[in-house]
Structure formats: C-alpha cells, structure tokens
C-alpha cells in the first residue's frame, strides 16, 4: 500500500508541470495567483517537495480542476475518460486523454467566425503534432506555408515550425489533434527559416 501511495505522489509533480505548460502559465504567474513561492512550486513540480492539501487546494482553484485530477486518482475499474472542456482564445478544447507523460489527444472546436479578420499569430514549441479534420475547413499556417485542410484530411508536422490554426471560411471547424510527449512545452514565438527540413505532410481524404 505504501508503494502505491508513493507512486501516486511521485506522479503529481510531472502532472502539475504538464498542466501548467499546457495552460501557458509561468511559475511566476502561478505564484502570484496561488500565493505559493516560486521555489516551492519548482520543487513540487520536480518531485523534491511532497504535495499536501495546503499546496494542492490553491493549485486546484487556480487551474479550476478537482484535486483528484491533480493527484491522478484513478476511477475504479472504469477506463472511460470524462473530458472537461475548456475555452482558450475563443476555441473550445476537450482533453481526450489523462496521460501527462505520454501522447496527448484533444478535440478542438473553432466556432464560426472566430478568426475572421484576426491576424494569424504563429507559435512554435517542442514536439510533434498530428491533426485530423472532422467537420469544416481548417486554415493552417505552417512556417511560410498557408493551406486549407478539409474534413477527412490529415496533417502532421514538427512543432518547431511556427504554426497557427483557424477558420478557412465562415463555418465552424472541428478537428482532432495528438501531441507528442514533448508537446507540452510553453508556446513561444519563433521565426521560420527556409532551411528547416520539416514541413507539413498532407494525406488524401480518408473514405
């Protein structure tokens, strides 16, 4: 039993780091929100500080998630994932996995007209990205490429290339995405270099 508890506690740090990076938050900003010193947050994420309620409660409030999601308490004999949708820059994102250290799967819903007139702001980060369009037409900017994926089309690319997604027309878009293990790094602005070897690969429509 003690070994099981130790294993659960050891997984909290990486889970907290992954959650913070997915939210695009810094340790400094999180410290201001929770009142927890930056050094404590850093030690907590690295596993050098055991997580207690006095730390988990303010973190759960800051992330607006239940404590059991931070601890990773499994549902007994229930493999189902119960996604909790969140809205980011007007886009609804539904996490489809609960595996902070591995592949991350998401469903994205871009409402109609969300990116109309909005200047694209490509970002880059560590990892590898895979996309599959369920409905609508998705505009994708990847480095110096600007193209449209239609429903049933797939793209995959190295996320070191600056990229951006949005509506290709006035209709909403729904798509699935999978990020590689390193895809949880904080998004940073980057400049595309023509000599970069990686680019998007489009696959013909399935079905």
Outline the fold blueprint.
Layout (H helix, E strand, L loop, with lengths): L1 H21 L4 H8 L3 H9 L6 H11 L3 H5 L14 E3 L2 E5 L8 E7 L17 E8 L1 E6 L2 E6 L3 E5 L4 E5 L5 E7 L21 E3 L4
Antiparallel strand pairs: 1-2, 2-3, 3-9, 4-7, 4-9, 5-6, 5-8, 7-10
Helix pairs in contact: 1-3
Question: Care to describe what's here?
Answer:
- Helix content is 26%, strand content 27%.
- It has five helices and ten strands.
- The protein has helices at residues 2-22, 27-34, 38-46, 53-63, 67-71; strands spanning 86-88, 91-95, 104-110, 128-135, 137-142, 145-150, 154-158, 163-167, 173-179, 201-203.
- A hairpin with an 8-residue loop joins strand 2 (91-95) and strand 3.
- Helix 1 (2-22) crosses helix 3 (38-46).
What percentage of amino acids are in beta strands? 25-35%
Q: How do the helices and strands follow one another from N- to C-terminus?
A: HHHHHEEEEEEEEEE
Overall helicity: 25-40%
Task: Please give the number of β-strands.
Answer: 10
N→C terminal distance: 49 Å
Q: What composes the largest sheet?
A: 7 strands, antiparallel
Compact description:
With 207 residues, the chain is of the alpha+beta class.
Question: Which features would summarize this protein structure in a list?
Answer:
3-stranded antiparallel sheet; disordered C terminus; 26% helix; 7-stranded antiparallel sheet; alpha+beta; 5 helices; 207 residues
């Amino acid at each position: 039993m003690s070994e099981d508890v130790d294993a659960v506690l050891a997984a909290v740090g990486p889970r907290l780091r992954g959650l913070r990076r997915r939210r695009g938050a810094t340790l400094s900003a999180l410290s201001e929100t929770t009142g927890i010193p930056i050094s404590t947050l850093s030690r907590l994420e690295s596993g050098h500080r055991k997580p207690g309620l006095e730390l988990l409660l303010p973190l759960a409030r800051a992330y607006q998630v239940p404590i059991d999601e931070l601890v990773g308490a499994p549902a007994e004999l229930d493999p189902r994932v119960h996604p909790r949708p969140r809205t980011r820059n007007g886009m609804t994102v539904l996490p489809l996995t609960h595996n902070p250290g591995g592949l991350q799967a998401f469903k994205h819903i871009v409402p109609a007209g969300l990116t109309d007139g909005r200047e694209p702001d490509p970002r880059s980060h560590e990892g590898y990205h895979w996309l599959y369009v369920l409905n609508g037409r998705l505009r994708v900017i990847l480095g110096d490429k600007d193209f449209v994926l239609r429903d049933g089309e797939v793209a995959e690319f190295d996320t070191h290339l600056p990229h951006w997604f949005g509506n290709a027309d006035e209709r909403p878009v729904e798509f699935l995405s999978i990020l590689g293990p390193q895809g949880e790094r904080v998004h940073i602005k980057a400049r595309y270099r023509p000599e970069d070897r990686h680019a998007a690969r489009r696959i013909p429509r399935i079905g």
